[in-house]
Amino acid sequence: MTDSWDGLQTLKFSIKDHVASVVLCRPEKLNAFNDLMHDELFLVLNHIADQSDIRCVLLTGEGRGFCAGQDLGTRTGHESMDLGDKLEQGYNKNLRILKSIHAPVVCAVNGVAAGAGANIALNCDVVIAKQSAQFIQAFSSIGLIPDCNGTWLLPKLIGLARAKAITMLGTPITAEQAESWGMIYQAVADEDFNSVVNDMVATLANRPTRALSFIKNIMDESFRNDYGVHLDRERDVQRVCGLSHDFSEGVSAFLEKRKPEFKGH
Predict the structure, then answer these.
(1) Which of 134, 137, 136 is nearest to 151 (CA)?
(2) Do 90 and 149 sit in the same domain of this protein?
């Protein structure tokens, strides 16, 4: 399966071998968001969410940065504005679609991830970063709070004390520090980054996609479920998994000492 959209101006998007690749592409602005990027990302994510045969999604950036957040150069003068409405029509709308995608979403942070760019990355299922990359919660430097779900995610990932400190101080966090804190999955040497990312994406695309979808959803639910409710959810989801082709194939492959051929559904 191969698909591509050539008319995009702020993104590169393609689908190949059941992997959807989304590249933020305003490298001269460190891939900072403008209105067109919000609109194009909305179209692309909607398309991905509608494709049942996509088995992994890769999100990364073009050039030396992943994403510098919002392009403040699009603001004129010193006017105030309803940023709540801006969030709802831009980042929040896209993050809700991102969270609905059934396939695992890998974010490959190829450089600085600042402001909304940092938190977009953290909303993905697996975050892998170059050792030279940095994560910067830059919001307080311009009188704002972290958005893009940052105030929900960070305390859960790194603890309340660290989350408050790095967002109030705007402290740059290295990729290695982010890994050691549990903010991201892995920091990788720059020279090995592309090969490690490609191997990870290929591995995920060949694993049992429906089970992976259940894993990411039920782990998100764990933050709001109580103990008994979550046991019930595990029971119900495991019942569905146990009736799937991929479970039968996984067990057969284990018993026959061969590599499983998962269908992903």
Answers:
(1) 137
(2) yes
